[in-house]
Amino acid sequence: MKFRAKIIDVGCLNHFTRVVNTVSRLTKACVLRLTCDHLYFVLSGRVASGGVSMWCELSQGNFFDEFQLEGVSADANEIFLEVAPENLSRALKTAQNAKSVKIKLTKKSCPCLTLAAELPSLSSVSRVVTHDIPVDVIPRRLWHDFREPQMPDFDVSIYLPPLKTMKSVVDRMKNLSNYLVLEANLNGEMNLKIDTDLVSVTTHFKELGNPPWGDDGSQSSSPAHRDPDLMAEARVEIRKLQQFLTGQQVNPSRAMCNIVDRRILHLIFLHEDVSLQYFIPAVV
Amino acid sequence: MPLSTQSQADADQYILIASLDNARNLSNILKAISLRDHAIFNATQNGLKVTVEDSKCLQANAFIQAEIFQEYIIKEDAVGFQVNLTVLLDCLTIFGGSTVPGVCTALRMCYNGYGYPLTLFLEEGGVVTVCKINTQEPEEPIDFDFCSTNVTNKVILQSESLKEAFSELDMTSEVLQITMSPSHPYFRLSTFGNSGNAHYDYPKDSDMMELFHCTSEASTCKYKMSLLKPSTKALALSCKVSVRTDSRGFLSLQYLVRNDDGQICFVEYYCCPDEEVEEE
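The joint structure predicted for all components is written out below.
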Protein backbone atom coordinates (compact mmCIF):
# COMPACT_ATOMS: atom_id res chain seq x y z
CA MET A 1 0.00 0.00 0.00
CA LYS A 2 1.45 3.32 -0.98
CA PHE A 3 0.14 6.83 -1.10
CA ARG A 4 1.88 10.11 -1.82
CA ALA A 5 0.46 13.37 -3.00
CA LYS A 6 1.57 16.96 -3.34
CA ILE A 7 -0.16 20.34 -3.46
CA ILE A 8 1.80 23.31 -4.76
CA ASP A 9 -0.90 25.80 -5.63
CA VAL A 10 -1.86 28.05 -2.73
CA GLY A 11 -5.45 28.36 -4.01
CA CYS A 12 -5.81 24.56 -4.08
CA LEU A 13 -4.26 24.34 -0.64
CA ASN A 14 -6.71 26.86 0.82
CA HIS A 15 -9.64 25.15 -0.83
CA PHE A 16 -8.55 21.74 0.46
CA THR A 17 -8.10 23.22 3.93
CA ARG A 18 -11.60 24.66 3.87
CA VAL A 19 -13.08 21.31 2.90
CA VAL A 20 -11.20 19.53 5.68
CA ASN A 21 -12.31 22.21 8.16
CA THR A 22 -15.92 21.69 7.12
CA VAL A 23 -15.62 17.93 7.60
CA SER A 24 -13.93 18.36 10.98
CA ARG A 25 -16.88 20.45 12.16
CA LEU A 26 -19.29 17.68 11.25
CA THR A 27 -17.62 14.71 12.85
CA LYS A 28 -14.79 13.76 15.19
CA ALA A 29 -13.86 10.64 13.27
CA CYS A 30 -14.45 9.53 9.73
CA VAL A 31 -13.10 7.32 7.00
CA LEU A 32 -10.81 8.72 4.34
CA ARG A 33 -11.16 6.66 1.18
CA LEU A 34 -8.47 7.14 -1.44
CA THR A 35 -8.82 6.06 -5.05
CA CYS A 36 -6.85 7.05 -8.14
CA ASP A 37 -9.31 9.77 -9.06
CA HIS A 38 -10.99 10.78 -5.84
CA LEU A 39 -10.75 11.37 -2.12
CA TYR A 40 -13.79 10.68 0.02
CA PHE A 41 -14.52 11.63 3.62
CA VAL A 42 -17.14 9.17 4.81
CA LEU A 43 -19.20 8.89 7.94
CA SER A 44 -21.52 5.94 7.99
CA GLY A 45 -24.81 6.24 9.83
CA ARG A 46 -24.11 4.34 12.97
CA VAL A 47 -26.05 4.78 16.18
CA ALA A 48 -22.93 6.26 17.76
CA SER A 49 -23.04 9.22 15.39
CA GLY A 50 -26.72 9.75 16.10
CA GLY A 51 -27.64 8.16 12.83
CA VAL A 52 -26.32 10.95 10.64
CA SER A 53 -24.14 10.00 7.73
CA MET A 54 -21.94 12.03 5.49
CA TRP A 55 -20.31 11.59 2.09
CA CYS A 56 -17.84 14.18 0.89
CA GLU A 57 -16.29 13.63 -2.51
CA LEU A 58 -13.35 15.51 -4.01
CA SER A 59 -11.83 15.00 -7.43
CA GLN A 60 -8.18 14.59 -6.73
CA GLY A 61 -7.00 16.28 -9.91
CA ASN A 62 -8.46 19.62 -8.87
CA PHE A 63 -6.36 19.80 -5.73
CA PHE A 64 -3.19 17.80 -6.11
CA ASP A 65 -0.34 18.41 -8.46
CA GLU A 66 1.03 14.92 -7.88
CA PHE A 67 -0.97 11.92 -6.79
CA GLN A 68 0.31 8.35 -6.56
CA LEU A 69 -1.70 5.54 -5.15
CA GLU A 70 -1.09 1.83 -4.82
CA GLY A 71 -4.06 0.29 -3.12
CA VAL A 72 -4.51 -2.85 -1.12
CA SER A 73 -4.31 -5.02 -4.20
CA ALA A 74 -4.43 -4.72 -7.98
CA ASP A 75 -8.14 -5.43 -8.19
CA ALA A 76 -8.89 -3.29 -5.15
CA ASN A 77 -6.80 -0.27 -5.92
CA GLU A 78 -8.05 1.80 -3.00
CA ILE A 79 -7.05 2.64 0.56
CA PHE A 80 -9.48 3.16 3.46
CA LEU A 81 -8.18 4.96 6.52
CA GLU A 82 -9.92 5.91 9.74
CA VAL A 83 -8.83 9.39 10.74
CA ALA A 84 -9.75 12.29 13.02
CA PRO A 85 -10.29 15.13 10.54
CA GLU A 86 -9.47 17.68 13.21
CA ASN A 87 -5.89 16.42 13.27
CA LEU A 88 -5.66 16.99 9.55
CA SER A 89 -7.25 20.39 9.99
CA ARG A 90 -4.74 21.42 12.59
CA ALA A 91 -1.82 20.27 10.48
CA LEU A 92 -3.12 22.18 7.48
CA LYS A 93 -3.45 25.30 9.60
CA THR A 94 0.30 25.43 10.08
CA ALA A 95 0.73 24.91 6.37
CA GLN A 96 -1.28 27.99 5.44
CA ASN A 97 1.40 29.83 3.49
CA ALA A 98 3.38 26.82 2.42
CA LYS A 99 5.18 26.65 -0.89
CA SER A 100 4.22 23.00 -1.09
CA VAL A 101 2.49 20.39 1.01
CA LYS A 102 3.28 16.70 0.69
CA ILE A 103 1.06 14.04 2.16
CA LYS A 104 2.06 10.43 2.36
CA LEU A 105 1.14 7.25 4.10
CA THR A 106 3.89 6.17 6.43
CA LYS A 107 4.49 3.73 9.21
CA LYS A 108 5.84 5.20 12.42
CA SER A 109 4.90 3.48 15.65
CA CYS A 110 1.54 3.11 13.94
CA PRO A 111 0.29 3.90 10.46
CA CYS A 112 0.28 7.65 9.85
CA LEU A 113 -0.56 10.23 7.29
CA THR A 114 2.53 12.37 7.30
CA LEU A 115 2.05 15.93 6.18
CA ALA A 116 5.17 17.89 5.32
CA ALA A 117 4.76 21.59 4.62
CA GLU A 118 7.57 23.53 3.03
CA LEU A 119 7.31 27.00 4.50
CA PRO A 120 8.82 30.17 3.12
CA SER A 121 11.82 31.34 5.07
CA LEU A 122 14.21 34.28 4.96
CA SER A 123 17.20 32.12 4.25
CA SER A 124 17.75 30.14 1.09
CA VAL A 125 16.99 26.89 2.88
CA SER A 126 13.27 26.19 3.31
CA ARG A 127 11.75 25.35 6.65
CA VAL A 128 9.83 22.10 6.72
CA VAL A 129 7.14 21.41 9.27
CA THR A 130 6.08 17.79 9.57
CA HIS A 131 2.96 16.37 11.16
CA ASP A 132 2.35 12.69 11.77
CA ILE A 133 -1.37 12.07 11.90
CA PRO A 134 -2.19 8.62 13.27
CA VAL A 135 -4.63 6.62 11.18
CA ASP A 136 -6.14 3.17 11.25
CA VAL A 137 -6.04 1.14 8.07
CA ILE A 138 -9.45 -0.38 7.45
CA PRO A 139 -9.28 -3.94 6.22
CA ARG A 140 -10.93 -4.80 2.93
CA ARG A 141 -13.59 -6.97 4.50
CA LEU A 142 -15.09 -3.88 6.16
CA TRP A 143 -15.11 -1.70 3.04
CA HIS A 144 -18.77 -2.42 2.31
CA ASP A 145 -19.72 -0.35 5.36
CA PHE A 146 -18.43 2.73 3.58
CA ARG A 147 -20.02 2.41 0.19
CA GLU A 148 -21.39 5.44 -1.61
CA PRO A 149 -24.91 5.98 -0.28
CA GLN A 150 -27.70 5.31 -2.71
CA MET A 151 -29.77 8.31 -3.62
CA PRO A 152 -32.83 7.72 -1.46
CA ASP A 153 -36.22 7.29 -3.07
CA PHE A 154 -37.20 10.79 -2.14
CA ASP A 155 -40.65 12.34 -2.18
CA VAL A 156 -39.58 15.93 -2.72
CA SER A 157 -36.39 17.54 -3.94
CA ILE A 158 -35.96 21.29 -3.50
CA TYR A 159 -33.23 23.92 -3.61
CA LEU A 160 -32.39 25.38 -0.22
CA PRO A 161 -33.08 29.03 0.60
CA PRO A 162 -30.12 31.44 0.91
CA LEU A 163 -27.94 29.76 3.53
CA LYS A 164 -27.42 32.92 5.54
CA THR A 165 -31.16 33.33 6.10
CA MET A 166 -31.70 29.63 6.75
CA LYS A 167 -28.87 29.61 9.25
CA SER A 168 -30.20 32.67 11.13
CA VAL A 169 -33.63 31.12 11.43
CA VAL A 170 -32.29 27.72 12.51
CA ASP A 171 -29.99 29.37 15.08
CA ARG A 172 -32.91 31.21 16.66
CA MET A 173 -35.15 28.16 16.54
CA LYS A 174 -32.50 26.20 18.40
CA ASN A 175 -32.93 28.59 21.34
CA LEU A 176 -36.60 27.75 21.42
CA SER A 177 -36.82 24.02 20.67
CA ASN A 178 -34.80 20.83 20.28
CA TYR A 179 -36.61 19.67 17.18
CA LEU A 180 -37.85 21.28 14.01
CA VAL A 181 -39.90 20.12 11.09
CA LEU A 182 -38.60 20.84 7.60
CA GLU A 183 -41.30 20.40 5.00
CA ALA A 184 -41.27 21.16 1.29
CA ASN A 185 -43.26 20.54 -1.87
CA LEU A 186 -42.69 20.43 -5.61
CA ASN A 187 -43.99 23.99 -5.93
CA GLY A 188 -40.74 25.40 -4.57
CA GLU A 189 -42.19 26.03 -1.11
CA MET A 190 -40.40 25.14 2.10
CA ASN A 191 -41.40 25.69 5.71
CA LEU A 192 -39.34 25.40 8.86
CA LYS A 193 -41.54 24.84 11.91
CA ILE A 194 -41.16 24.48 15.63
CA ASP A 195 -43.91 23.89 18.14
CA THR A 196 -43.39 23.86 21.89
CA ASP A 197 -45.43 24.66 24.99
CA LEU A 198 -44.19 28.23 24.94
CA VAL A 199 -44.23 29.14 21.30
CA SER A 200 -44.82 27.99 17.75
CA VAL A 201 -42.82 29.48 14.89
CA THR A 202 -43.14 28.85 11.16
CA THR A 203 -40.88 30.35 8.52
CA HIS A 204 -42.20 30.24 4.94
CA PHE A 205 -39.84 30.19 1.99
CA LYS A 206 -41.26 30.48 -1.52
CA GLU A 207 -40.08 30.21 -5.11
CA LEU A 208 -37.06 28.15 -4.20
CA GLY A 209 -37.22 25.95 -7.29
CA ASN A 210 -37.10 22.19 -7.52
CA PRO A 211 -34.13 20.42 -9.11
CA PRO A 212 -35.08 18.60 -12.33
CA TRP A 213 -34.20 14.98 -11.62
CA GLY A 214 -34.14 13.26 -14.99
CA ASP A 215 -32.44 10.07 -16.02
CA ASP A 216 -29.77 10.44 -13.33
CA GLY A 217 -32.12 10.31 -10.38
CA SER A 218 -33.40 6.94 -9.25
CA GLN A 219 -36.99 7.97 -8.81
CA SER A 220 -39.44 5.13 -9.02
CA SER A 221 -42.51 7.34 -8.72
CA SER A 222 -42.18 10.16 -11.18
CA PRO A 223 -42.43 13.59 -9.57
CA ALA A 224 -44.89 14.60 -12.25
CA HIS A 225 -47.53 12.39 -10.67
CA ARG A 226 -47.17 13.93 -7.24
CA ASP A 227 -49.51 16.73 -6.18
CA PRO A 228 -47.17 19.73 -6.31
CA ASP A 229 -48.72 21.29 -3.21
CA LEU A 230 -48.32 18.19 -1.07
CA MET A 231 -45.64 18.63 1.56
CA ALA A 232 -43.09 16.00 2.46
CA GLU A 233 -41.66 16.50 5.93
CA ALA A 234 -38.88 15.41 8.22
CA ARG A 235 -38.72 16.15 11.94
CA VAL A 236 -35.07 16.40 12.92
CA GLU A 237 -32.91 17.44 15.85
CA ILE A 238 -32.12 21.09 15.29
CA ARG A 239 -28.63 20.56 16.65
CA LYS A 240 -27.77 18.26 13.74
CA LEU A 241 -29.11 20.60 11.11
CA GLN A 242 -27.40 23.55 12.76
CA GLN A 243 -24.12 21.65 12.90
CA PHE A 244 -24.31 21.09 9.17
CA LEU A 245 -25.18 24.68 8.34
CA THR A 246 -22.62 26.19 10.70
CA GLY A 247 -19.76 24.02 9.53
CA GLN A 248 -19.88 25.28 5.98
CA GLN A 249 -16.72 27.00 4.96
CA VAL A 250 -17.18 26.22 1.30
CA ASN A 251 -19.90 28.34 -0.27
CA PRO A 252 -21.75 25.89 -2.43
CA SER A 253 -22.72 26.73 -6.00
CA ARG A 254 -25.79 24.56 -5.47
CA ALA A 255 -27.49 23.63 -2.23
CA MET A 256 -30.51 21.37 -2.17
CA CYS A 257 -32.26 18.81 -0.09
CA ASN A 258 -34.25 15.66 -0.71
CA ILE A 259 -36.93 14.59 1.70
CA VAL A 260 -38.18 11.08 2.22
CA ASP A 261 -41.42 11.80 4.04
CA ARG A 262 -40.99 11.24 7.78
CA ARG A 263 -37.82 9.24 7.23
CA ILE A 264 -34.75 11.10 5.98
CA LEU A 265 -33.53 14.59 5.30
CA HIS A 266 -30.80 14.42 2.66
CA LEU A 267 -28.81 17.62 2.19
CA ILE A 268 -26.56 18.11 -0.82
CA PHE A 269 -24.01 20.84 -1.33
CA LEU A 270 -22.31 20.99 -4.70
CA HIS A 271 -19.24 22.96 -5.54
CA GLU A 272 -17.13 22.75 -8.70
CA ASP A 273 -14.83 20.07 -7.44
CA VAL A 274 -16.38 19.01 -4.13
CA SER A 275 -19.72 17.47 -3.29
CA LEU A 276 -20.97 17.08 0.25
CA GLN A 277 -23.97 14.95 1.20
CA TYR A 278 -25.39 14.77 4.69
CA PHE A 279 -28.17 12.44 5.81
CA ILE A 280 -30.18 13.26 8.92
CA PRO A 281 -32.70 10.66 10.08
CA ALA A 282 -36.16 11.91 10.93
CA VAL A 283 -37.47 11.37 14.44
CA VAL A 284 -41.03 10.72 15.42
CA MET B 1 -48.69 34.81 3.88
CA PRO B 2 -47.35 38.31 3.24
CA LEU B 3 -48.22 40.82 5.92
CA SER B 4 -50.25 42.93 3.55
CA THR B 5 -52.66 40.24 2.43
CA GLN B 6 -53.83 39.16 5.86
CA SER B 7 -57.56 38.68 5.66
CA GLN B 8 -59.81 41.42 6.96
CA ALA B 9 -61.58 38.82 9.09
CA ASP B 10 -58.37 38.12 10.99
CA ALA B 11 -57.75 41.82 11.49
CA ASP B 12 -61.21 42.26 13.00
CA GLN B 13 -60.51 39.76 15.79
CA TYR B 14 -57.45 41.53 17.10
CA ILE B 15 -57.79 43.97 19.97
CA LEU B 16 -54.25 45.20 19.51
CA ILE B 17 -52.26 45.60 16.29
CA ALA B 18 -48.87 47.27 16.24
CA SER B 19 -46.70 47.39 13.12
CA LEU B 20 -43.16 48.51 12.49
CA ASP B 21 -41.17 48.73 9.26
CA ASN B 22 -38.09 47.99 11.32
CA ALA B 23 -38.49 45.42 14.11
CA ARG B 24 -35.24 46.62 15.66
CA ASN B 25 -37.10 49.70 16.89
CA LEU B 26 -38.83 47.32 19.31
CA SER B 27 -36.24 44.58 19.85
CA ASN B 28 -33.41 46.98 20.76
CA ILE B 29 -35.38 48.73 23.45
CA LEU B 30 -36.67 45.45 24.84
CA LYS B 31 -33.10 44.16 25.07
CA ALA B 32 -32.37 47.17 27.29
CA ILE B 33 -34.78 45.82 29.90
CA SER B 34 -34.22 42.09 29.41
CA LEU B 35 -33.17 41.31 32.98
CA ARG B 36 -35.50 38.43 33.51
CA ASP B 37 -37.57 36.03 31.44
CA HIS B 38 -40.97 37.55 31.97
CA ALA B 39 -42.28 40.87 30.76
CA ILE B 40 -45.59 42.55 31.49
CA PHE B 41 -47.08 44.36 28.50
CA ASN B 42 -49.51 47.18 29.05
CA ALA B 43 -50.84 48.81 25.91
CA THR B 44 -52.99 51.95 25.92
CA GLN B 45 -53.93 54.62 23.37
CA ASN B 46 -50.62 56.29 24.14
CA GLY B 47 -48.50 53.32 23.26
CA LEU B 48 -46.77 50.33 24.74
CA LYS B 49 -45.30 50.03 28.20
CA VAL B 50 -43.24 46.93 28.92
CA THR B 51 -42.20 46.11 32.50
CA VAL B 52 -39.66 43.65 33.87
CA GLU B 53 -39.14 43.16 37.60
CA ASP B 54 -36.40 41.55 39.63
CA SER B 55 -36.94 40.26 43.16
CA LYS B 56 -39.35 43.07 44.02
CA CYS B 57 -36.42 45.46 44.38
CA LEU B 58 -35.85 46.51 40.81
CA GLN B 59 -38.21 47.47 38.03
CA ALA B 60 -37.33 48.30 34.44
CA ASN B 61 -39.84 49.92 32.09
CA ALA B 62 -39.66 50.62 28.38
CA PHE B 63 -42.05 53.10 26.77
CA ILE B 64 -42.73 53.00 23.05
CA GLN B 65 -45.22 55.70 22.08
CA ALA B 66 -47.96 54.95 19.57
CA GLU B 67 -46.35 57.42 17.12
CA ILE B 68 -43.29 55.20 16.80
CA PHE B 69 -45.39 52.49 15.16
CA GLN B 70 -46.33 52.66 11.47
CA GLU B 71 -49.68 51.20 12.48
CA TYR B 72 -51.12 51.17 16.00
CA ILE B 73 -54.68 50.05 16.61
CA ILE B 74 -56.08 49.35 20.04
CA LYS B 75 -59.71 48.49 20.57
CA GLU B 76 -59.86 48.71 24.33
CA ASP B 77 -58.73 51.28 26.87
CA ALA B 78 -55.98 49.05 28.11
CA VAL B 79 -54.68 45.71 26.93
CA GLY B 80 -52.41 43.74 29.23
CA PHE B 81 -50.61 40.41 29.06
CA GLN B 82 -47.42 38.74 30.12
CA VAL B 83 -44.98 36.89 27.85
CA ASN B 84 -41.61 35.25 28.01
CA LEU B 85 -39.32 38.09 26.97
CA THR B 86 -36.43 35.83 25.94
CA VAL B 87 -38.73 33.97 23.55
CA LEU B 88 -40.13 37.23 22.23
CA LEU B 89 -36.65 38.58 21.54
CA ASP B 90 -35.63 35.37 19.74
CA CYS B 91 -38.72 35.73 17.56
CA LEU B 92 -38.18 39.43 16.83
CA THR B 93 -34.62 38.65 15.71
CA ILE B 94 -35.49 35.44 13.84
CA PHE B 95 -33.75 36.66 10.69
CA GLY B 96 -30.56 37.34 12.55
CA GLY B 97 -29.47 40.21 14.72
CA SER B 98 -27.03 41.73 12.26
CA THR B 99 -27.47 45.29 11.13
CA VAL B 100 -26.99 45.11 7.37
CA PRO B 101 -27.75 48.58 6.00
CA GLY B 102 -30.97 48.79 4.03
CA VAL B 103 -32.19 45.37 5.11
CA CYS B 104 -34.91 45.38 7.74
CA THR B 105 -37.29 42.97 9.31
CA ALA B 106 -40.85 44.27 9.15
CA LEU B 107 -43.11 43.40 12.08
CA ARG B 108 -46.82 43.14 12.68
CA MET B 109 -47.68 42.28 16.27
CA CYS B 110 -51.26 41.18 16.99
CA TYR B 111 -53.21 40.15 20.04
CA ASN B 112 -56.75 38.74 20.19
CA GLY B 113 -57.21 39.18 23.91
CA TYR B 114 -57.20 37.16 27.08
CA GLY B 115 -56.25 33.53 26.58
CA TYR B 116 -54.85 34.03 23.08
CA PRO B 117 -51.21 33.91 22.09
CA LEU B 118 -49.29 36.99 20.98
CA THR B 119 -48.96 36.63 17.21
CA LEU B 120 -46.01 38.10 15.35
CA PHE B 121 -45.71 38.35 11.58
CA LEU B 122 -42.15 39.09 10.55
CA GLU B 123 -40.91 39.62 7.02
CA GLU B 124 -37.51 40.12 5.52
CA GLY B 125 -36.56 39.78 1.86
CA GLY B 126 -39.82 38.10 0.93
CA VAL B 127 -39.52 35.43 3.63
CA VAL B 128 -42.31 35.44 6.22
CA THR B 129 -42.14 34.02 9.72
CA VAL B 130 -45.22 33.63 11.90
CA CYS B 131 -44.76 33.26 15.66
CA LYS B 132 -47.40 32.50 18.24
CA ILE B 133 -46.15 33.09 21.76
CA ASN B 134 -48.21 31.93 24.69
CA THR B 135 -49.35 34.66 27.05
CA GLN B 136 -50.15 34.64 30.73
CA GLU B 137 -52.29 36.75 32.98
CA PRO B 138 -50.32 39.93 33.60
CA GLU B 139 -49.03 40.51 37.11
CA GLU B 140 -49.59 43.92 38.60
CA PRO B 141 -46.32 45.85 38.39
CA ILE B 142 -45.05 47.19 41.71
CA ASP B 143 -45.75 50.85 42.28
CA PHE B 144 -42.49 52.30 43.49
CA ASP B 145 -44.39 55.43 44.42
CA PHE B 146 -41.65 57.61 43.03
CA CYS B 147 -43.09 61.05 42.52
CA SER B 148 -41.28 64.23 41.62
CA THR B 149 -42.32 65.99 44.83
CA ASN B 150 -40.25 63.59 46.92
CA VAL B 151 -37.17 63.89 44.75
CA THR B 152 -34.31 65.22 46.78
CA ASN B 153 -31.53 65.17 44.23
CA LYS B 154 -31.43 65.05 40.45
CA VAL B 155 -28.72 65.09 37.81
CA ILE B 156 -28.94 64.73 34.06
CA LEU B 157 -25.82 63.53 32.35
CA GLN B 158 -24.80 62.67 28.84
CA SER B 159 -24.68 58.90 28.73
CA GLU B 160 -21.23 58.93 27.18
CA SER B 161 -19.73 59.88 30.52
CA LEU B 162 -21.37 57.09 32.46
CA LYS B 163 -20.86 54.35 29.89
CA GLU B 164 -17.19 53.98 30.63
CA ALA B 165 -17.75 53.93 34.38
CA PHE B 166 -20.52 51.34 34.18
CA SER B 167 -18.56 49.04 31.93
CA GLU B 168 -15.62 49.17 34.33
CA LEU B 169 -17.57 48.74 37.55
CA ASP B 170 -15.84 46.43 40.00
CA MET B 171 -18.13 43.43 40.05
CA THR B 172 -16.54 42.10 43.22
CA SER B 173 -18.27 44.96 45.03
CA GLU B 174 -21.65 43.93 46.37
CA VAL B 175 -22.98 47.43 46.19
CA LEU B 176 -22.88 50.51 44.01
CA GLN B 177 -22.94 53.63 46.12
CA ILE B 178 -24.33 56.85 44.69
CA THR B 179 -23.49 60.14 46.37
CA MET B 180 -25.11 63.43 45.38
CA SER B 181 -24.04 66.56 47.18
CA PRO B 182 -24.26 70.35 46.76
CA SER B 183 -20.52 70.49 47.33
CA HIS B 184 -17.59 68.32 46.30
CA PRO B 185 -17.73 65.54 45.09
CA TYR B 186 -21.17 66.61 43.67
CA PHE B 187 -21.97 63.30 41.94
CA ARG B 188 -19.98 60.20 42.79
CA LEU B 189 -20.26 56.50 41.99
CA SER B 190 -18.35 54.25 44.40
CA THR B 191 -17.55 50.57 44.60
CA PHE B 192 -15.94 48.56 47.40
CA GLY B 193 -14.41 45.46 45.91
CA ASN B 194 -11.70 42.94 46.64
CA SER B 195 -8.96 45.05 45.16
CA GLY B 196 -10.04 48.19 46.93
CA ASN B 197 -12.44 51.13 46.63
CA ALA B 198 -13.08 53.00 43.43
CA HIS B 199 -14.74 56.39 42.97
CA TYR B 200 -16.02 58.01 39.79
CA ASP B 201 -16.59 61.74 40.30
CA TYR B 202 -18.63 64.01 38.06
CA PRO B 203 -18.24 67.69 38.99
CA LYS B 204 -21.30 69.88 38.56
CA ASP B 205 -19.68 72.14 36.01
CA SER B 206 -18.46 69.28 33.82
CA ASP B 207 -19.39 69.38 30.09
CA MET B 208 -21.24 66.12 30.52
CA MET B 209 -23.47 67.45 33.27
CA GLU B 210 -26.63 68.89 31.73
CA LEU B 211 -28.48 69.47 34.94
CA PHE B 212 -27.39 69.42 38.53
CA HIS B 213 -30.05 69.89 41.14
CA CYS B 214 -29.15 69.11 44.70
CA THR B 215 -30.96 70.22 47.84
CA SER B 216 -29.01 71.43 50.83
CA GLU B 217 -28.42 67.90 52.05
CA ALA B 218 -26.01 65.42 50.56
CA SER B 219 -27.37 61.95 50.00
CA THR B 220 -25.44 58.74 49.91
CA CYS B 221 -27.16 55.51 49.09
CA LYS B 222 -26.12 51.98 48.36
CA TYR B 223 -27.76 49.69 45.82
CA LYS B 224 -27.10 46.02 45.11
CA MET B 225 -24.63 45.79 42.26
CA SER B 226 -26.33 42.69 40.86
CA LEU B 227 -29.57 44.66 40.46
CA LEU B 228 -28.05 47.72 38.82
CA LYS B 229 -25.44 46.18 36.56
CA PRO B 230 -28.03 45.10 33.94
CA SER B 231 -28.99 48.76 33.50
CA THR B 232 -25.76 49.05 31.54
CA LYS B 233 -27.71 47.73 28.54
CA ALA B 234 -30.10 50.67 28.70
CA LEU B 235 -27.22 53.05 29.23
CA ALA B 236 -25.45 51.75 26.14
CA LEU B 237 -28.48 52.52 23.98
CA SER B 238 -29.16 55.95 25.41
CA CYS B 239 -27.82 59.42 24.80
CA LYS B 240 -28.91 61.01 28.07
CA VAL B 241 -29.66 59.70 31.54
CA SER B 242 -31.30 61.30 34.54
CA VAL B 243 -30.45 60.05 38.00
CA ARG B 244 -32.85 60.91 40.82
CA THR B 245 -33.11 59.83 44.42
CA ASP B 246 -35.97 60.50 46.78
CA SER B 247 -36.31 60.91 50.51
CA ARG B 248 -36.47 57.13 51.02
CA GLY B 249 -33.28 56.54 49.09
CA PHE B 250 -35.12 55.01 46.13
CA LEU B 251 -33.31 55.43 42.85
CA SER B 252 -34.80 56.36 39.50
CA LEU B 253 -32.72 56.14 36.34
CA GLN B 254 -34.34 57.48 33.20
CA TYR B 255 -32.76 56.92 29.81
CA LEU B 256 -33.47 58.82 26.62
CA VAL B 257 -33.06 56.39 23.73
CA ARG B 258 -33.00 57.26 20.06
CA ASN B 259 -34.01 54.39 17.80
CA ASP B 260 -32.70 53.57 14.30
CA ASP B 261 -34.95 56.26 12.81
CA GLY B 262 -33.94 58.91 15.32
CA GLN B 263 -37.21 58.74 17.22
CA ILE B 264 -37.18 59.05 20.98
CA CYS B 265 -38.22 56.36 23.44
CA PHE B 266 -37.72 56.13 27.18
CA VAL B 267 -36.45 53.46 29.48
CA GLU B 268 -36.54 53.80 33.24
CA TYR B 269 -35.18 51.76 36.11
CA TYR B 270 -36.37 51.97 39.71
CA CYS B 271 -34.27 50.46 42.45
CA CYS B 272 -34.70 50.07 46.21
CA PRO B 273 -31.76 50.97 48.41
CA ASP B 274 -29.76 48.12 49.86
CA GLU B 275 -30.74 47.75 53.50
CA GLU B 276 -27.61 46.96 55.43
CA VAL B 277 -27.67 45.37 58.84
CA GLU B 278 -25.73 47.74 61.04
CA GLU B 279 -22.88 45.94 62.76
CA GLU B 280 -22.58 46.66 66.44
